[in-house]
Write a structure and sequence with these properties.
With about 450 residues, the chain is mainly beta. The chain starts with 14 loop residues before the first strand and ends with a helix. The radius of gyration is 21 Å and the shape is globular. It is built from 6 helices and 21 strands. The chain has a 15-stranded antiparallel beta sheet that branches. The chain has a two-stranded antiparallel ribbon with strand order 2-3. A two-stranded antiparallel ribbon has the order 4-5. Helices cover about 10% and strands about 30% of the residues. The protein has a single domain (about 10-80, about 120-445), classed as Lipoprotein localisation LolA/LolB/LppX (outer membrane lipoprotein receptor (LolB), chain A, Clam), CATH 2.50.20. This is DUF1329 domain-containing protein. InterPro entries: DUF1329 (IPR010752). Keywords: Signal.
């Protein structure tokens, strides 16, 4: 298959056009830069010219004093720092080139919206075996004609991406552990600014793709599993949902347990712009964690790498009460830490003959973690519709820096949604022993399997 490859300019200072959908693994010379000029996961190891982005020095791997495994993660490793500056509607033009369209729209729309920018800390880290697998993947991983990665396991699949689909798979397969659980709440905030709880439950999750003792293909292609059981709100108590995502999206499956019927039913279309029961239908399946699920509905363009202001190291967002964070028209600016980082910019345009409620999107992937931290979506009329966000937090015990709380602002309806609100929960992303296969079987939804 022929595809275009743009020349990557030194330092990636500006945006660059890179096209292509399928291709081969990178050359041995390129892969050899991992751990040298590049971090083990593929980011530029060096800082930027003016030092506002420091060099990566191995990340944050030492838990803070007083940390208890399985407990809370609201201990801010940089609690003593003050903002370098704050951005409001009055001075946003000064920083426009480092803001997403969604961030600029929120600054214009709400006088109370503010971006506090702190010193940049490159806290991203992963276990050594993840680094080693990433290096192997660089020489073996490929995208097939269905935009599905083959020849990758246990690490970032495409640490030196050549097209947008590869970069998005890096986000989908970013390192966040093998098995974990958390007690979760989610809130829809109405156009009047009233928060309405939509979810209160406990979730078990696993990533078989990252099982340390597994090999490529050993999990039958399943890379992410979730089972969410709702304790509330009362109308949803006892309801449950289970999902298994596969590298081959045609093998994705989802099930829902309806307490009123005492029946487990298979979801007919657990993907794309279909509303997901996990959020009471507020979010679509492919808006989870900014973007999730299959890629074949869109043409993906790797625009390039750019210095951007993004949420980062936001452990403070997990502190206090839920309503300390869910503050009127948007997240409480006092609890969201922003930093300057390099991000990969990826654009998505719906393929000819395919329908989607958001036919255009733009996503911002942190270069150090590959986590999608921001995303914007346009509707069929070309209006900027939703701006998505995800708050990365440090987890030195894992080690990792990865997203927890995520959501979106609807710029047209003036509603917004926050998921994985863990402020009042005693467990915030608890690392677990490996779950049994039965944990993520349909029978588990009403059999009490844990």
């Amino acid at each position: 298959m022929n595809f275009k490859r743009a020349i990557v300019t030194a330092g990636f200072g500006g945006l660059m056009g890179i096209q292509g959908m399928a291709g081969a693994a990178v050359s041995a010379d390129e892969a050899a830069q991992l751990g040298k000029t590049l971090t083990p996961l593929g980011a530029e190891k060096a800082g930027n010219k003016d030092g506002s982005i420091p060099a990566w020095d191995g990340g944050l791997t030492r838990p803070p004093a007083g940390f208890k495994a399985g407990g809370r993660r609201d201990q801010d490793p940089y609690a003593g720092e003050k903002p370098l500056y704050s951005i409001t509607a009055k001075n946003m033009d000064q920083y426009a080139d480092k803001l997403s369209d969604g961030a600029k729209a929120m600054l214009k729309k709400h006088a109370s919206y503010r971006i506090d920018v702190y010193p940049t800390h490159r806290t991203a880290a992963a276990p050594q075996w993840v680094y080693e697998n990433t290096l192997k993947n660089a020489g073996t991983a490929k995208l097939n004609d269905k935009q599905v990665p083959v020849g990758a396991h246990g690490g970032i699949p495409f640490p030196i991406p050549k097209n947008g689909a590869e970069a998005m798979w890096n986000h989908l397969l970013s390192w966040r552990g093998e098995n974990w659980q958390f007690n979760n709440r989610a809130y829809l905030v109405t156009s009047e600014g009233k928060p309405v709880m939509t979810v209160d439950g406990i979730a078990a999750q696993s990533m078989p793709y990252f099982y340390k003792d597994a090999t490529a293909g050993s999990a039958n292609g399943n890379y992410w599993n979730i089972r969410l059981v709702n304790a509330g709100p009362p109308i949803r108590a006892g309801e449950a949902i289970l999902g298994r995502q596969n590298l081959d999206p045609d093998r994705d499956v989802g099930y829902v347990y309806l307490a009123g019927q005492r029946r487990t039913r298979k979801l007919p279309n657990a993907c794309c712009d279909t509303p997901t029961p996990a959020t009471a239908g507020v979010m679509s399946f492919d808006e989870i964690s900014v973007f999730a699920g299959r890629l074949d509905r869109f043409d993906w363009k790797l625009v390039g790498k750019k210095e951007m202001l993004i949420p980062y190291n936001s452990n403070r967002s997990l502190a206090g009460k839920d309503m300390d964070l869910i503050n009127g028209r948007h997240l409480n600016p006092d609890m969201v830490r922003w930093e300057l980082h390099r991000v990969w910019v990826v654009e998505a345009n719906v393929k000819p003959g395919v329908r989607h409620v958001a036919p255009k999107g733009r996503y911002y992937l942190d270069e150090d973690t590959w986590v999608a931290v921001l995303g914007d979506r346009w509707d069929a009329k070309g209006q900027l519709w939703k701006t998505m966000w995800q708050l990365p937090v440090t987890m030195p015990d894992l080690p990792a820096t990865t997203g927890i709380t995520f959501g979106f602002y609807d710029l047209l309806s003036n509603t917004w949604f926050a998921n994985l609100v863990l402020n009042e929960k005693p467990e915030q992303y608890k690392i677990m022993p490996r779950y049994s296969d039965a944990t993520f079987s349909p029978d588990s939804l009403n059999s009490g399997v844990r």
